[in-house]
Amino acid sequence: MTANVFMIIMPNQRIVVADLQAGRKPDPKYGKIAKQRSTHNNYLTLPVIFLMLSNHYPLAFATQYTWIIGALVFLMGVSIRHYFNSNHARTGNPTWTWAVTAVIFILIMWLSVAPAMSRAEEDLSALPPSVSRFAQAADFDQVYNTVTGRCSMCHAEMPVYPGINWAPHGLRLETQAEVARAARLIYLQAGRAHAMPPSNLSWMEDDERALIRQWYQGVVDSGRG
Ligand code: HEC
Predict the structure, then answer these.
(1) pTM, rounded to two decimals
(2) Using a 6 Å cutoff on CB, does residue 9 contact ligand 1?
(3) Mean pLDDT of all residues in the chain?
């Protein structure tokens, strides 16, 4: 938008003014070009305002589809603008733009809550047996729920615990594969010791620690045959 103003609209204006001052008849093409760029800018105003405010609304940015959402917002700005432009210029009443806007908006809402694609669940059967045996244990579901409930506010790709900005020690405990892979660390730090959660910040119960011990030891013991 700025480039349109500084590189096209204003220079063209200067050419026209200079022509008029010198008594020449200005070439109308300068006006036409400037008008076209100004129309482009007019269609861009709503998306720009939206993007300026959007950092207040996680629905617009707390997803990895932000770039698609941003692109759709531009289209939506254009469809809304087109309705008002046509209406104000009395060149028509394009109500179809409402439908387009609504469809784009629903698409944006859907993208905003769509599950992340990069963190697709790893195929547990692809894990080496030394890891997958922890995921196959009968009590794994319970363990997994406990760990995601008590640990993943910090040990996550995007931790939600205040002050924790990335997974401590790079240890993520979100997917089943991650929990199975970290079995020994979980067992030692939260099952045997009370080192995790730090100061028991997430109120882990004693029977949850017992469950982790039982899970880990059960798998290891069965491995010994
Ligand atoms: C409040 C945030 C928080 C919670 C909740 C939390 N952790 Fe941690 N965790 C940390 C921090 C911070 C460290 C790094 C500690 C250090 O460097 O001394 C850490 C380190 C660890 C480590 C050491 C990693 C390594 O590579 O040595 C393990 C294992 C661990 N946590 C497991 C767990 C488990 C299991 C839970 C849930 C039962 C849990 N944590 C819950 C913040 C947390």
Answers:
(1) 0.57
(2) no
(3) 91
Q: What are phi and psi of 22, to 5 degrees?
A: -85, 5
C-beta of 190 in contact with ligand 1 (< 6 A)? yes
Closest CA to 150 of 211, 189, 207, 208: 208
Long-range contacts formed by 142-146: CB under 8 A, 24+ apart: 142/211, 142/215, 143/179, 143/211, 143/212, 143/215, 144/176, 144/179, 146/204, 146/208, 146/211, 146/212
The closest-lying atom of ligand 1 relative to the alpha carbon of residue 159 is 2
Residue 24 region, left (φ>0) first, then alpha (ψ -120 to 50), else beta? beta
Distance CA 79, CA 99 (A): 9
CA distance 217 to 206: 16
pLDDT over 60 at 205, yes or no: yes
**Residue located nearest, by CA, to atom 23 of ligand 1:** 169
C-alpha distance from residue 47 to each of 31, 66, 112 (Å): 26, 14, 17
Ligand 1 centroid from CA 123, angstroms: 25
- Closest protein CA for atom 12 of ligand 1: 168
